[in-house]
């Protein structure tokens, strides 16, 4: 008769254990999903940062190249008309603004 009495208390214990396992599994799954989302978000941010750095570097190189050709060209254009330094600066600024518009940089 001892085995029958001990089996009667097993069903509630088994039910509580089953509920515990289900709740624990749900919490673990939720935690893993949130960690996965966090990892994906970090990767996306790193990719955006790399893209921004690459774009910035490309634009900087293009504008440096444009500036190195704009100054001598402006000096030549102003020099033929006996202009001043301010005229050269104005022409360089105008050329650089036009180049920035061509690049589509705002």
How are the SSEs ordered, and which strands pair?
Layout: H1 2-8, H2 10-80, H3 85-103
Helix pairs in contact: 2-3
Into how many domains do the coordinates divide?
Answer: 1
Overall pLDDT, averaged?
83
Straight-line distance between termini: 88 Å
Tally of separate helices: 3
Q: Helix/strand-derived class?
A: mainly alpha
Helical content class: over 70%
Overall 3D form: rod-shaped
The main sheet comes to: none
Explain how this protein is built.
By secondary structure, this protein is mainly α. The protein has one domain (2-103). 92% of the residues lie in helices and 0% in strands. It contains 3 helices and no strands. The chain has helices at 2-8, 10-80, 85-103. Helix 2 packs antiparallel against helix 3. The longest helix has 71 residues, at 10-80. The model has no long low-confidence stretch (mean pLDDT 83).
């Amino acid at each position: 008769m001892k085995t029958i009495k001990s089996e009667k208390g097993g069903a509630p214990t088994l039910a509580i254990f089953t509920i515990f396992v289900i709740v624990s599994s749900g919490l673990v799954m939720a935690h893993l999903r949130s960690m996965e989302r966090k990892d994906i978000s970090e990767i996306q941010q790193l990719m955006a940062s790399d893209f921004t750095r690459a774009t910035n570097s490309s634009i900087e190189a293009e504008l440096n190249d444009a500036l190195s050709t704009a100054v001598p060209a402006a000096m030549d254009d102003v020099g033929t008309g006996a202009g001043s330094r301010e005229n050269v600066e104005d022409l360089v600024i105008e050329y650089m603004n036009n180049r920035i518009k061509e690049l589509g940089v705002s």
